[in-house]
Every structure is written in structure tokens, then in C-alpha cells.
Amino acid sequence: MTSWLNLAAIALGGAGGSLCRYGVTLLAAALPGGSTMLGTTLANVIGCGLLGALSSLAPADSESIGRLMLALRVGFLGSLTTFSTFAAESSMLAGEGRWGASGAYVLANLGLGYLTLILAGSLVRGWIQT
Q: What CA–CA distance (Å, rounded) separates 84 from 10?
């Protein structure tokens, strides 16, 4: 049974993640040549890196995941990253006939996110072992 403390931790983490997501989007859009799509990509890549690092610190099974990890992984990172916005933006590019841009956007989000997750996890595991 899920405790109300777990739900509160997830909610607090989610509030922080959504505020950071909004800030990343504003900063990315304010950059010369920046856009909200850049903000989406940055939020997703940052979130993947943080999840890779956190996953190296604690296993994902519900038995060993602590309240802090629930707040960080489910709440904060769940709110920071955004698959639905990524899907909508890629679909918008394709709908405008910008197939190359849509494909590059999909590859950038998925490829950079995956590579960042693996790299961050490897770095943290390396630091822990030394």
C-alpha cells in the first residue's frame, strides 16, 4: 500500500521538476536561435543524465527505493522530462512537411538522451568504485 508520505514526496518532487522544466524552456527560448523545442531536448537530456546517475546509486525495484528516490526519480525527473511535448513537437514538424527536421529532432532526443543516461550512470559507478 502506498503511504501518503510517498505520495507527498512524489508531489513535492514533481512541483520542483515542473518548475525547472519551465525554466529550462524559458532559457532555451531566450538564447539566440533558441526555441521551446531546444528546451524540450535539453530537459529530456538533462533528465536522462540525472536518471542514469541516480540509477547507479539505488536500484529501481520498489523494495529498496527510498522516499528520496521516489521524490527525485518519479516526481522531479518525471516532471522535468516530457515525452508528450517531444511527441507533439516532432509531429508538428512532420505535419509541416519538415521530415528531415522531425527525424533529426527524434534522433537528437532519443540518441542524446540514451547516451547521456549511459554516460552519467557509468561515471557515477566509476566514482563509487574508486
A: 20
Give CA–CA dist 92/26, Å, rounded: 20
Of the candidates 105, 104, 98, the one whose C-alpha atom is nearest the C-alpha of residue 36 is 105
User: Mind listing the pLDDT tens digit for each residue in 69-105?
Assistant: 999 999 999 999 989 999 999 999 999 999 999 999 9
Are the beta carbons of 32 and 97 closer than 8 angstroms?
A: no
Task: Answer whether 114's CB lies under 8 Å from 48's CB.
Answer: yes
Residue 119, C-beta contacts closer than 8 angstroms, at least 6 positions apart: 49, 52
- What's 61's DSSP letter? S
DSSP 21-49: HHHHHHHHHHSTT--HHHHHHHHHHHHHH
- Give the predicted TM-score (pTM) of the model: 0.87
> Helices 36-57 and 113-129 meet at what angle, rounded to 10?
30
118 CB-near residues (< 8 Å, 6+ apart): 52
